[in-house]
């Protein structure tokens, strides 16, 4: 079966957060992480059938939904989980906030590696916890953990470590040795490890995704894994995600912290989730081919046509490119690219000073990406011209 990733859908005038931001302006939105592709045909068909039933009451996952998810983890990653470890959530940002509240007290510290997806920083702060950020280091074209800085950042009030695996926005797949060392670090400092793996099904290079909690019992017993079909299958608006918590005490704390304030997952979300993990593997493989080719297009175009912009490290996973624009010396890079018709994400939201990086979402048809890159070329050329 072939799938159409060339079709450019009309999202302007729909309720799309991504496209509404620039309504009425000729700006291609390559910011928030959803894709301009229709979900897999299997998901669309399952939703159509569910909608036709006409009853949308309070929901609980049926056994086949749980089996589809658990089966995908075993097949793809060799990770066998007990279904009772799953806590369903309406979103992973909620999961990050909840994790901070469940395992740290106000004034306690939550470690993370920057640049990172903004709720890793804002999540703890929202409830009076402190975000401690350890910048990643660029070593020989690779983002590396600064282990010395990480050790120095720990205080008696450090309770949690927030890991992004694979890491948004630097598109890095963590290797076994790194994850094992992080596990040893968390064990030694008695930290709960929260591993956000929302991008794990979007690995572009020939590298395995290693679920952090799958690396041994000690790791599993202190890890909260966050996963969702939302990024991979382009269903983030259906608000369905999971926390996987093997340890019964940690799980009870998490559930207690969520009591009465966490919305339940909805009927359409469960339907899409099942069709995603059980029936959409050929679509996912085709998507990965499109994303690889978009990734290669960006790498080539940036190197040849965008002087002053660099991509410092391989894009191993995700559909997000982290572009260094510091050499352009723009006070406000986002505003500059918007003036030339491209909407990117502000690097400073990810925990670094403004003016160094911007993030580009390449989860879109190749034609959209090519047009955006041409606009960026004009934007770069316009610098310095009155
Ligand atoms: C690492 C990471 N976690 C969580 C989310 C968002 O999760 P949700 O939409 O389920 O709140 C994103 C979205 O880009 C993300 O990149």
Structural summary, described in words:
With 386 residues, this protein is α/β, with parallel strands linked by helices. It has two domains: 17-38 and 281-382, Alpha-Beta Complex (Aspartate Aminotransferase, domain 1), CATH 3.90.1150.10; 44-279, Aspartate Aminotransferase, domain 2 (3-Layer(aba) Sandwich), CATH 3.40.640.10. Helix content is 39%, strand content 15%. The chain is built from 13 helices and 14 strands. It has helices at residues 17-20, 41-53, 63-77, 92-103, 119-126, 147-153, 176-188, 217-222, 248-258, 267-279, 281-305, 333-339, 366-382; strands at residues 28-29, 86-89, 109-114, 130-135, 137-138, 143-144, 158-164, 192-196, 223-227, 241-244, 320-324, 342-343, 345-346, 357-361. It has a seven-stranded mixed sheet, sandwiched between helices. A three-stranded antiparallel sheet has the order 11-14-13, with no helix packed on it. A two-stranded parallel ribbon has the order 1-12. Helix 7 links the parallel strand 7 (158-164) and strand 8 (192-196). Helix 4 (92-103) packs across helix 5. The chain is globular, with a radius of gyration of 21 Å. The mean pLDDT is 97. It binds pyridoxal-5'-phosphate (PLP). Pyridoxal-5'-phosphate (PLP) is lined by residues 33, 91-93, 117, 164, 168, 196, 198, 228, 230, 236, 241.
């Amino acid at each position: 079966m072939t799938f159409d990733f060339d079709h450019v859908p009309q999202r302007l005038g729909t309720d799309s957060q991504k496209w509404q931001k620039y309504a009425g302006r000729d700006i291609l939105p390559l910011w928030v992480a959803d894709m301009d592709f229709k979900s897999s045909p299997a998901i669309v068909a399952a939703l159509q059938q569910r909608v036709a039933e006409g009853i949308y009451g309070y929901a609980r996952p049926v056994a086949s939904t749980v089996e589809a998810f658990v089966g995908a983890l075993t097949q793809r990653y060799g990770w066998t989980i007990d279904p009772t470890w799953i806590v369903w959530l309406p979103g992973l940002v909620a999961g990050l906030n909840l994790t901070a509240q469940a395992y740290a007290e106000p004034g306690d510290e939550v470690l993370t590696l920057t640049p990172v997806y903004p709720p890793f920083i804002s999540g703890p702060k929202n409830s009076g916890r402190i975000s401690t950020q350890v910048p990643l280091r660029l070593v020989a074209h690779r983002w590396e953990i600064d282990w010395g800085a990480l050790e120095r950042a720990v205080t008696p009030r450090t309770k949690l470590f927030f890991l992004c695996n694979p890491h948004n926005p630097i598109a890095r797949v963590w290797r076994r040795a790194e994850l094992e060392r992080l596990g040893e670090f968390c064990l030694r400092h008695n930290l709960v490890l929260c591993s956000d793996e929302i991008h794990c099904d979007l690995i572009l290079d020939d590298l395995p995704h290693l679920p952090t909690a799958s690396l041994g019992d000690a790791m599993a017993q202190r890890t909260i894994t966050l996963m969702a079909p939302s990024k991979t299958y382009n269903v983030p608006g259906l608000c369905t995600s999971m926390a996987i918590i093997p340890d019964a005490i940690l799980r009870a704390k998490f559930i207690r912290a969520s009591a009465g304030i966490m919305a339940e997952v909805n009927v359409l979300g469960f339907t899409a989730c099942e069709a995603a993990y059980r029936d959409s593997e050929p679509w996912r493989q085709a998507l990965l081919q499109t994303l690889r080719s978009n990734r290669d297009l960006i790498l080539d175009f940036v190197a040849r046509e965008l002087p002053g912009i660099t991509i410092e490290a391989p894009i191993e996973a995700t559909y997000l490119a982290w572009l260094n624009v510091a050499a352009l010396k723009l006070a406000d890079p986002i505003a500059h690219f918007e003036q030339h018709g491209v909407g990117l994400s502000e690097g400073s939201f990810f925990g670094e000073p403004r003016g160094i990086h911007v993030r580009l979402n390449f989860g879109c048809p190749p034609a959209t990406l090519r047009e955006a890159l041409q606009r960026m070329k004009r934007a770069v050329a316009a610098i310095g011209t009155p």
